[in-house]
Each structure stands twice: as C-alpha cells, then as structure tokens.
Write a structure and sequence with these properties.
Layout: H1 2-7, H2 12-18, H3 20-24, H4 26-59, H5 63-85, H6 88-104
Helix pairs in contact: 2-5
Length: about 100
C-alpha cells in the first residue's frame, strides 16, 4: 500500500501549502485536537487497508501500470493545484486559516 500512497506525491506539496497555516499550528493545539483527529486518522487508515485488501487481488497483475498512471495523474494535477494556491481563492483559504488562528489565540 505504501507505494500507492506515495505514487501521487507530486500533488501533495501544493495541497499542504494551502493548509500550511493550520498545519503549522498543530503542535500548539495537539492536546485539544488529538481526540478529534486520532479517530479520523484511525478510520482513514482502516478504510485504506480494507480498500487495499479488496483491490489487491484483482489489481495485482496491473500494479505497475496503476502506479505509473497514478504518478502521471499526480504530475498533471500538481501544476493545477499550484495555480490554485496562487489565485485569490487560494489566498482566501490561507487568510481564512490565519484569521481563525488569530481569533483562537
């Protein structure tokens, strides 16, 4: 499963940039957020494992091609996501996070 998770790595940096303000403050709010975030992460991991278990047998012969296609798709999406970061909408998302963090305190 790890290869499948990382095949799309080219698309991650712009997405992380969009949630950067909140993400950078996670250590500060970890105690308050952990009870909310931990079950979501556990459910997501369990869902990913279940999905992988279901799809692995029929997809096994095509795994290399699927990984290549996923990497190509991520490479194609990455510039679009980067463009979003540099639009007023992307700026609004970042500023909204900054405002929420400032009001939280």
């Amino acid at each position: 499963m790890s290869s499948e998770a990382f095949a799309a790595a080219a698309a991650y940096p712009p997405a992380v940039q969009l949630i950067g303000p909140i993400l950078s403050q996670y250590p500060r709010y970890e105690q308050q957020l952990a009870p909310l975030v931990t079950p979501l992460i556990a459910a997501s991991a369990q869902g990913g494992t279940t999905l992988c278990d279901l799809l692995s047998p029929p997809c096994a012969p095509y795994r290399t091609q699927v990984l290549e296609a996923e990497a190509a798709l991520a490479a194609g999406i990455a510039p679009l996501t980067q463009q979003l970061v540099n639009t007023p909408v992307g700026g609004c998302v970042i500023e909204l996070q900054n405002a929420l963090l400032a009001s939280a305190g």
